[in-house]
Write a structure and sequence with these properties.
- By secondary structure, the chain is of the alpha+beta class.
- Helix content is 55%, strand content 16%.
- It contains 4 helices and 6 strands, in the order αββββαββαα.
- The chain has helices at residues 7-27, 76-84, 108-145, 151-184; strands at residues 42-45, 48-51, 56-62, 65-70, 93-95, 98-102.
- The strands form 2 sheets. Strands 3-4-6-5 form a 4-stranded antiparallel beta sheet, covered by helices on one side.
- Helix 3 (108-145) runs antiparallel to helix 4.
- It is elongated and about 65 Å long.
């Protein structure tokens, strides 16, 4: 049986990429500490890479400090190293199974670094949307080649896929612009 083409399914997948970007950008702090800041951090643990929230609990004891309570004592140094190398510009300090992560004051340089991180997240989202577009176009070509849809339908659906892609990419750009403005605001 031939695989069915669904523009709604492609739009839904693209929307998930946009939603994922919103979640990642929510973790980029602009003023105060947030436990979601460490969500993108993955830790080398148990022979693989695991999200930080699967090996530790992140809390916010005060506005400029995060506290990471590691569940397995042997992973404390790996968690500290993962936070340090996350590209978030954080300098954690381990105290046994508790890792304190002081958040630096947002100076101009730090704000620029955060906008670079935001741009990276946005580019990842754009790439994800383009991959979904490619999947849709490949499916259309296959359906056309197999004779399941006509060339005219293939072009029409291709235009719909491109329109959905353009919409998703413009949404990513708008979200990035808002976040960039929020970060650079003093």
């Amino acid at each position: 049986m031939a695989q069915a083409f669904s523009i709604d399914e492609l739009k839904s997948r693209m929307q998930k990429s946009v939603t994922s970007l919103k979640d990642e950008l929510a973790g980029l702090r602009t003023g105060r500490a947030s436990a979601s800041l460490l969500e993108p951090v993955t830790v080398e643990a148990y022979g693989g890479r695991m999200p930080l929230n699967q090996v530790a609990t992140v809390t916010v004891p005060e506005s400029r400090m995060l506290s990471v309570q590691v569940w397995d004592r042997t992973l404390a140094s790996a968690v500290e190293k993962a936070i340090r190398n996350s590209g978030l510009g954080l300098n954690p300090a381990a105290e046994g199974v508790v890792i304190r992560v002081p958040l630096p004051e947002l100076n101009e340089e730090r704000r620029r670094d955060l906008t670079k991180v935001a741009h990276n997240y946005a580019e990842q989202a754009r790439v994800a949307v383009r991959h979904i577009r490619r999947d849709g176009m490949d499916l259309l070509k296959k359906l056309e080649k197999d004779g399941d849809i006509s060339q005219d339908d293939g072009r029409k659906f291709g235009d719909l896929v491109q329109a959905a892609t353009d919409h998703a990419v413009s949404e990513v750009d708008k979200i990035l612009a808002v976040k960039e403005q929020e970060i650079m605001q003093v």
